[in-house]
Structures are given as structure tokens and as C-alpha cells.
Amino acid sequence: MDGYARQIPLIGEEGQEKLMKSRVLVVGAGGLGSVVITYLVSAGIGKIGIVDGDVVEEHNLQRQFIHAGNVGKNKALSAMEFVERLNPDVEVEAYPFNLNESNIAIAKHYDVVVACPDNFETRLILNDFCVRNDIPMVHGAIYGFEGEVTTVVGSPCYRCLYSSFPKQEERFTPVFGFTCGVAGSIQCAETIKVLLGMEVLRGKLLRFDLRSMEFFTIEYERNPNCLACKNRKEG
Ligand SMILES: [Zn+2]
Question: Residue 166's pLDDT is what?
Fold first, then answer.
């Protein structure tokens, strides 16, 4: 507990114990994932699962600092190495593959899913699975100086928020490391708050623009035509 002396006054020993028993799955160990993994592991969660099928490339290191020295290595395995160095008390499981319909069942073993992938397809697969299985999902995305975060706890969900999606995100999204830092930190705060039963960005999309330094929240509701929410009993 000594290692967490500076945060225990905020959440109590009981809160810390809750964190130490919790399991979080981080999907994507890229720019957002690097930040989310760093702060979740520092805060002493019990177990972290890391999903990523990509390999570390030189141009990733500008924002994916947890992979320093690991160019050429799988990102999930590289992140696992980082976690073991940062906080050996945290159990870590690496899933060195890309998430799809056939392997998403791994998410059932976790209390919260943090969505940090680089494409819409994975976000939708995650959203639908989490809504169906009542697993809270913390969504984050960035573009250039801009970012957004929302937390899906049942309904409304990520699919309710966006009625259409482009086929494919750009191969190289322009971005600064600090944009990932802001969005990833907010995702981490949301995750910790979900685990502790605190109020989160449910039905609220937080958007920010670091060029104008504007932060604002947009409220959204359940879309009656949402494919993911349709079969849910409660709203
Ligand atoms: Zn929905």
C-alpha cells in the first residue's frame, strides 16, 4: 500500500483495495494505450490485459513512449515488458493479435474495457460486445490537436452517438504526442472512476481542441434505431 500513499487520501484504503482487485482490458497499445496503461498500472489495478497485433515502428515512438527500445517487437508484448518494470505487483496478460469477432470473448474476463484502437471497425465490435455483456467501455479518439472521450455504461452507446462511420480511418492520422496524453489521461480517470463507482461521462461526449484550448461536453441520448441497444431491456 505504501506505493499508493499519495492517492489513498483521495479514495481510502478501501478504494485502493478495490482497484487492486480490478481487471482492465486495454485494446490498442498505441498513443492512447501507452498513456492509459502507464497510469492504470501506476495506480495499482490488479490485472491489465493488453491487446495489439501491430509491431513497434520508429515513427510510433513520438507518442508511444512505453515501447522505447522495442522497435520491431509486437506492441502487446512490448507493453507487457514495460508494465513488469513499472509495477511488478500488477498482473499482466498480453494478447498479441488484433481484436475481431472470433477472439473478443477475452473481454468477458475484465471489469472494464478501454477502447484505444486505430480504426472504427474495432471500436464498433468492442461497443457491441460490451453493450451486450454489460461491460463498461471507455472510448477515446484523437486527431491532430483534437480528442474525444465518452464512457459507455449500458445505454446510450458509441453506436448511438454516431449514425454513420467512414469505411476506413486514415493509415497515418496526424497527431501530436501531447494530444494522446490528454485524451489517454481522461480515459484513465474515467476507468478508475468506473471501478470505484463514481460518476462518469455516461451519455456525455467530452471534446477538446488543444489549438483553441476549448473543452466542452455534448450530451447524447439513446438512438431508438441503434443496433447494439435494440435488444437491451433497460435504457
Ligand atoms: Zn446504442
Answer: 66
